[in-house]
Amino acid sequence: MVSEEFGFFIDPQRCIGCRSCVAACAECGTHRGHSMIHLDELDRLASTQTGPTVCMHCEDPICAMSCPADAIKRTEDGVVHASQKPRCVACQNCELSCPFGVPIVLPGLEQMLKCDLCYDRSSIGLKPMCATVCPSQALLFAPRHEVAAMRGSRPLREFVIGGLRIRTRNAIMVPDPEVPLNLDASILMEGGL
Amino acid sequence: MAHLPTDAAALRSRFGPHLNSAPPGGWDADPVPERTVETHCCFCGQQCGIKLKVAGNQVVGFDPWEAFPFNKGKLCPKGVKRYLQGGHPDRLLHAMKRTASGFEPMGWEEAMERTVAEITRIQDRYGKDAFAMLSGVSLTNEKSYLAGKFARLALGTRNLDYNGRLCMVSAGAGNKKAFGVDRAANSWEDIPLADVIWVTGANVAECAPITTDYIWRARDRGAKLIVVDPRITPLARTADLALPLRPGTDSALTNGILHLLDQWNLVDRDFVRDHTNGFDEALEAARACTPQWTSAVTGLPVAAIEKAARMWGEASTSFLLHARGIEHQSKGVENVNSCINMVLATGRIGRPGCGYATITGQGNGQGGREHGHKCDQLPGNRDIENPEHRAHICGVWGCTDEELPGKGLSAQEIMNAIHEGDIKGLLCLCFNPLVSLPDSTFTREALEKLEFFVSLDFFLSETAQHADIIFPSALHEEDDGTSTSAEGRVIRIRKAVEPPGEARTDWEILVELARRLGRGRFFDHFTSPGAIFQELRRASSGGTADYGGITYEKIEKQMGVFWPCPTEDHPGTPRLFEGGKFFHPDGRARFIPTPWRPPMEEVDADYPVWLTSGRVVFHYLSGTQTRRIGFLVEQCPHPYVEIHPRLAANLGIREGDATAVATRRGELVLPAKLVTTIRPDTVFIPYHWPGNLGANRLTARHLDPVSRIPEFKVSACRVTRTTPDRFPPELLELMALGRGE
Ligand code: SF4
Ligand code: SF4
Ligand code: SF4
């Protein structure tokens, strides 16, 4: 069981695009060689902003609801697991339905894989691999009640996507005030543009 | 003599870089680790703690070492994937000699005999100093110390220098001038306590990623962040104030700030009076640096300069961090001292939350500049020209003053002397000058002139390809020892596995060479790294970098010991200068006047654009190791030119276009990467690649007069659009790799 006391907080503001999370995810005991994290350069022309995407572990996971083979299970501790190999038919419904674009059906593997919060680690009191290594702690795994005191930003666990209200186990940190994404050195120079 | 023995493509196909992407036996092998070894990352100066998993004399993976206080398990991607170099197919397993058609394995005995015969021949014919040695600061403290002693007493040459010369020597020299000691003034624990953080010439997110979390922890408390850099780096993206100044104008800005601090009465006059000398002279040099003047020189708006001065001046605690951006210049030392002037003027040093540091770049960059493998230095950060310092070391080493050579040439000067024909032989250890020195065409010509070149390496680096004899040496995880992190924390490197094949540790190779050179009496007692460390402790005792009280046991117990640590009952010194006490004989710090002067090369009609270079997070320095690791290469397979869209539009360049960047030294053709996060008058190229992809084909050999560091960060270039058929073949190969072909 993963303690409810501990939450996973994703803070794109802090992300430096180093892909340590991607590198380390592939190294954990369950994912050997496959990373479950997507790391996107949002718009490299205009900014160095990068964004990590990990599974949000939804309270009512659409991936599981849309799975015809009932292969995706959510445990009591709010962790949504990767598909169960014997059941998964690799139909990609989960890939298409997840509002956060998380699950991956790897060619050749014929199974949906996704972040399971490093269940081998988090269920015995360790942090997920990505959150352990993340140099800037853009991926943070910490006691929920400590986070407010620790960070200037606000954890968001409820989203409205396509008219659907989604509550998640993991939180996204929202900065206040918002940080501009579009950066141009020439604006900051003498004479401007 | 030392031309490439065969063509570059043939060397590449045999010695790599090949990519290793999976642990030994592949991902499905999943070996059960027999043990984990608590050690440190082999790459950058932060020296993160890491646990290596070992099975069957191979490193098969890693575990985060969360108990280690500096990084608490955090790692950048290089640290995560470092274990993939262990069973790497490119590892050198036998001694090799150059033949007409390439390299051939040779017996250890023959390699030793030939090397000793050649060293002796060259020195008999041309004199001792005609044989030079270059070493690197990825070496442990033990090996750095041994390298210094080996060059002086086994080779008897004064021409020994190290690749820290290309890294932090400007910081070291500036620190010594101002503080009388060369070390970060604080442990990183003071960063989260600071109210304002000034980062200049440091791409912290990519070159010192773990440090970003320390800075964010301060910002969570409301600290302000000021970042000075021609590029808006990933850390600058969120800064309270980003100052994209013109390359080479750093001390103009810092002088301008000092001027304003004085004008606005934000100087801590009591601190200046009680604990420093030279304030008036430094201020005098900054007198003309009005905001208008500073704006004209740096290209920053007056309002931004004034805002920076207010933010810095009005804070109650602060931390200033700098790195190669300001140090890699022909006025690197002046840049460093002008930063320190800003720190001293506010008196914010030597107490909690107040500090100053250079972010050491190379793994043991800090320790490597303390133990005497610099051309002008003896262990304990002693001066090779100081008679008392010499006497102390002669006492420890058991040699006479006549046996101890004097000051020699620095790294670039050694290469210049090889080119001139004054130096005929070279031993190179853990240094890849062909990629890392400026003006690589010149470096290649120099290597080709050597009569004899012996290299110790674990992969065949671009420089080692020019060697006559190569000894296969050991990786970081194959040896014991200590290293000293950017913070000044001495830490323990633990051996995880034995070196493969006939590879041996650098210290074993050097000790055997010394013995065969007839100098065994100075080296025979070095039977382990621990034995070398015992002598290092004695040699450093009483010096500024005093390791006298540090033992392996104490390091393990305390998870590192900060020097100075003079006695065994001393806990070490995380924060220097407490109570305003500095290391100069009078206990006071020095303001150093830094009147502004332009860089050695400025833009003109022929070369109208500034060129600067730096690192990406996926590679380490000359890439000897990281260009061999699949994941790291896939994230950033090849160099590129960062250009602002406004400059690109003027030049008719679009994203991905073949772009020729030419300086007075040479030309590179690389794909363009259009980004608004760089000044429109400046282009940037990451420098980790060799040959036709090497940014150092373009840089100049101008040196800082004090630190002898080359001016890597400022050149004038011409940028033009060209056609893709001019992309070098090795670039096309790497581009295909990047597309997953
Ligand atoms: S984020 Fe996507 S994959 Fe994760 S639980 Fe929600 S729907 Fe499923
Ligand atoms: S490890 Fe952290 S900082 Fe690096 S890319 Fe992943 S989320 Fe971003
Ligand atoms: S390269 Fe530096 S930041 Fe990255 S893991 Fe190694 S020591 Fe840490």
TrEMBL record, chain A:
<feature type="domain" description="4Fe-4S ferredoxin-type">
    <location>
        <begin position="6"/>
        <end position="36"/>
    </location>
</feature>
<keyword id="KW-0004">4Fe-4S</keyword>
<keyword id="KW-0411">Iron-sulfur</keyword>
<dbReference type="Pfam" id="PF12797">
    <property type="entry name" value="Fer4_2"/>
</dbReference>
<feature type="domain" description="4Fe-4S ferredoxin-type">
    <location>
        <begin position="78"/>
        <end position="108"/>
    </location>
</feature>
<dbReference type="GO" id="GO:0046872">
    <property type="term" value="F:metal ion binding"/>
</dbReference>
<dbReference type="Pfam" id="PF13247">
    <property type="entry name" value="Fer4_11"/>
</dbReference>
<keyword id="KW-0408">Iron</keyword>
<dbReference type="GO" id="GO:0051539">
    <property type="term" value="F:4 iron, 4 sulfur cluster binding"/>
</dbReference>
<keyword id="KW-0677">Repeat</keyword>
<feature type="domain" description="4Fe-4S ferredoxin-type">
    <location>
        <begin position="46"/>
        <end position="77"/>
    </location>
</feature>
<protein>
    <submittedName>
        <fullName>4Fe-4S ferredoxin</fullName>
    </submittedName>
</protein>
<keyword id="KW-0249">Electron transport</keyword>
<keyword id="KW-0813">Transport</keyword>
<dbReference type="InterPro" id="IPR017896">
    <property type="entry name" value="4Fe4S_Fe-S-bd"/>
</dbReference>
<dbReference type="InterPro" id="IPR017900">
    <property type="entry name" value="4Fe4S_Fe_S_CS"/>
</dbReference>
<dbReference type="InterPro" id="IPR050954">
    <property type="entry name" value="ET_IronSulfur_Cluster-Binding"/>
</dbReference>
<keyword id="KW-0479">Metal-binding</keyword>
Automatic annotation (TrEMBL), chain B:
<dbReference type="InterPro" id="IPR006657">
    <property type="entry name" value="MoPterin_dinucl-bd_dom"/>
</dbReference>
<dbReference type="GO" id="GO:0051539">
    <property type="term" value="F:4 iron, 4 sulfur cluster binding"/>
</dbReference>
<dbReference type="GO" id="GO:0022904">
    <property type="term" value="P:respiratory electron transport chain"/>
</dbReference>
<keyword id="KW-0479">Metal-binding</keyword>
<dbReference type="InterPro" id="IPR006963">
    <property type="entry name" value="Mopterin_OxRdtase_4Fe-4S_dom"/>
</dbReference>
<protein>
    <submittedName>
        <fullName>Assimilatory nitrate reductase catalytic subunit</fullName>
    </submittedName>
</protein>
<keyword id="KW-0004">4Fe-4S</keyword>
<dbReference type="GO" id="GO:0043546">
    <property type="term" value="F:molybdopterin cofactor binding"/>
</dbReference>
<dbReference type="Pfam" id="PF00384">
    <property type="entry name" value="Molybdopterin"/>
</dbReference>
<dbReference type="InterPro" id="IPR006656">
    <property type="entry name" value="Mopterin_OxRdtase"/>
</dbReference>
<dbReference type="InterPro" id="IPR009010">
    <property type="entry name" value="Asp_de-COase-like_dom_sf"/>
</dbReference>
<dbReference type="Pfam" id="PF04879">
    <property type="entry name" value="Molybdop_Fe4S4"/>
</dbReference>
<dbReference type="Pfam" id="PF01568">
    <property type="entry name" value="Molydop_binding"/>
</dbReference>
<dbReference type="InterPro" id="IPR050123">
    <property type="entry name" value="Prok_molybdopt-oxidoreductase"/>
</dbReference>
<feature type="domain" description="4Fe-4S Mo/W bis-MGD-type">
    <location>
        <begin position="34"/>
        <end position="90"/>
    </location>
</feature>
<dbReference type="GO" id="GO:0046872">
    <property type="term" value="F:metal ion binding"/>
</dbReference>
<dbReference type="GO" id="GO:0003954">
    <property type="term" value="F:NADH dehydrogenase activity"/>
</dbReference>
<keyword id="KW-0408">Iron</keyword>
<keyword id="KW-0411">Iron-sulfur</keyword>
<dbReference type="GO" id="GO:0016020">
    <property type="term" value="C:membrane"/>
</dbReference>
